[in-house]
Structure to design on (397 residues):
C-alpha cells in the first residue's frame, strides 16, 4: 500500500498501472492481484491508510488539554497542512473524477473520512459538556469549524492553484478560529472583545 | 463572414451546455456542438477559438442564469440576516445543482493539465464573492457587523453554509436532501451572525 501511494503520488492515478506498483513492491502482478482485485481498490486502500495516519496526528491537537483557542488553532494548522498537501489534493481529484463509480468513494467516505470528522465532533461535544462551548448538535458545529478554516482554500487547490501563501494560511487559521469562538464560545465577549469595547 | 450577434452567441452557448451536460466534456467535440446548433464548424470557431473557451462561456452563462443578480441583491437594504438567508439559498441551489457539480468535476479532473479551472475561478467566481465582501464591508462601516477583513468574512460565510455538502456532492454522494440543505443554510447564517454582528 505504501508503494502504491508513492506511485500514485508521483504519477497520478491514471498514469499508474498495477504493473508499475508490482514493480515497486518487487513481486509479480499476480501476487498484487491476490491482495487487491483492481487498481481502484488498491487506490482506496492507499488513500484510507494515508488518511488514517495523518488524521490521528491532526485530531490529537484538539483532544489534548489546555486553552481551547490554542488547540483549535493547532488543529487548524495541521489540518490545512494535510488537506492542502499535493498528494491529498491529487487523491481528492481522483475521487472527484471517479464520482460516477460511487462504490469506491462511498466506501472511503463512510469508512474513513466520516469517522475522523465524528472524532472531531466528539471532541467538540466534550468541550460543550465542559462548559467551554455552548450546547448545539456537535457534528454540524464540527462542519462549521471546518468551513471557517477552509474557506475557498481547498477549492482553489483542487482547481490547480499550485500553493496557498503562508500568510493566507495563517489568516485562515487565526480568523477562522476567532470566528468559531465568537459563534460558539460561551464567553465570546471576554475571549474576543467586541469592537465597541475597544473604542 | 456573417456578423456575429449576441443572440447567435447565446444560442451556441446554450446548445454547448446541453451537449456538455449530456455527453461530458471529454466526449464532446466541436463538431457535435456545431451539429446541434445547426451551423458549420467554421462558424462555431469564429465565435469560440477552442472547446475550452466555449466550455468557459457555457459555464459562465449557466451560473448567471441560476444566480441572476443574487450577489447584487445581497447588497440591497434591509435586515442583514434576511438578505444573507435569501442569498445563501440561491447560491446553494446553484452550487449543488447536478450540471454545476458535473462541470466542476471536469475542471478538477483536468486541473493538472489545464489551467481552465483556475482561469474560470479568477474570472467569474472571485469577482462575485468580492461583491458580497463589499456588502459586508458596508455593514461593517455602518456598525452592524464588527470590523474584519471583508473578503475573509465572505469566505467564512461561504464555508459556514457549505460545510461538507459541496465535497459530498463532488464525491458522488446523492443522498443529500432538501432538508439537509435548509438546515445548513439556516444554521450557517445563524453562526455567521453570531460571529460577526456587533
Amino acid at each position: 500500500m505504501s508503494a502504491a501511494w508513492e506511485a500514485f503520488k508521483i504519477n497520478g492515478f491514471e498514469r499508474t498501472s498495477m504493473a508499475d506498483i508490482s514493480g515497486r513492491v518487487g513481486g509479480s502482478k499476480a501476487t498484487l492481484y491476490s491482495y487487491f482485485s483492481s487498481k481502484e481498490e488498491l487506490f482506496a486502500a492507499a488513500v484510507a491508510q494515508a488518511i488514517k495516519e495523518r488524521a490521528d496526528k491532526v485530531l490529537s491537537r484538539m483532544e489534548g488539554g489546555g486553552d481551547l483557542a490554542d488547540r483549535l488553532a493547532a488543529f487548524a494548522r495541521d489540518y490545512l497542512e494535510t488537506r492542502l498537501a499535493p498528494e491529498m489534493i491529487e487523491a481528492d481529484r481522483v475521487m472527484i473524477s471517479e464520482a460516477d463509480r460511487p462504490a469506491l468513494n462511498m466506501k472511503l467516505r463512510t469508512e474513513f473520512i466520516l469517522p475522523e470528522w465524528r472524532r472531531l465532533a466528539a471532541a467538540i461535544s466534550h468541550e460543550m459538556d465542559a462548559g467551554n462551548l455552548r450546547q448545539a448538535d456537535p457534528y454540524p458545529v464540527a462542519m462549521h469549524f471546518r468551513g471557517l478554516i477552509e474557506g475557498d482554500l481547498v477549492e482553489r487547490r483542487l482547481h490547480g492553484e499550485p500553493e496557498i501563501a503562508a500568510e493566507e494560511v495563517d489568516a485562515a487559521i487565526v480568523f477562522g478560529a476567532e470566528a468559531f469562538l465568537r459563534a460558539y464560545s460561551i464567553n465570546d465577549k471576554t475571549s474576543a472583545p467586541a469592537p465597541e469595547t475597544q473604542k | 463572414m456573417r456578423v456575429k450577434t449576441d443572440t447567435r452567441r447565446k444560442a451556441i452557448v446554450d446548445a454547448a451546455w446541453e451537449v456538455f451536460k449530456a455527453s461530458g466534456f471529454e466526449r464532446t467535440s466541436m463538431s457535435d456542438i456545431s451539429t446541434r446548433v445547426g451551423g458549420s464548424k467554421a462558424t462555431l470557431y469564429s465565435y469560440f477559438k477552442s472547446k475550452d473557451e466555449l466550455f468557459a462561456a457555457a459555464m459562465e452563462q449557466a451560473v448567471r442564469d441560476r444566480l441572476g443578480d443574487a450577489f447584487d441583491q445581497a447588497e440591497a437594504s434591509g435586515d442583514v440576516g434576511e438578505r444573507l438567508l435569501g442569498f445563501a439559498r440561491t447560491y446553494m441551489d446553484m452550487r449543488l445543482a447536478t450540471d454545476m457539480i458535473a462541470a466542476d468535476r471536469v475542471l478538477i479532473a483536468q486541473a493538472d493539465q489545464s489551467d481552465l479551472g483556475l482561469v474560470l475561478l479568477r474570472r467569474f467566481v472571485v469577482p462575485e464573492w468580492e461583491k458580497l465582501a463589499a456588502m459586508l464591508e458596508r455593514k461593517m462601516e455602518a456598525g452592524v457587523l464588527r470590523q474584519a477583513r471583508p473578503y475573509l468574512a465572505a469566505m467564512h460565510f461561504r464555508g459556514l453554509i457549505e460545510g461538507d455538502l459541496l465535497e459530498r456532492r463532488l464525491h458522488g454522494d446523492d443522498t443529500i436532501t432538501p432538508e439537509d440543505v435548509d438546515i445548513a443554510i439556516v444554521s450557517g447564517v445563524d453562526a455567521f451572525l453570531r460571529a460577526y454582528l456587533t
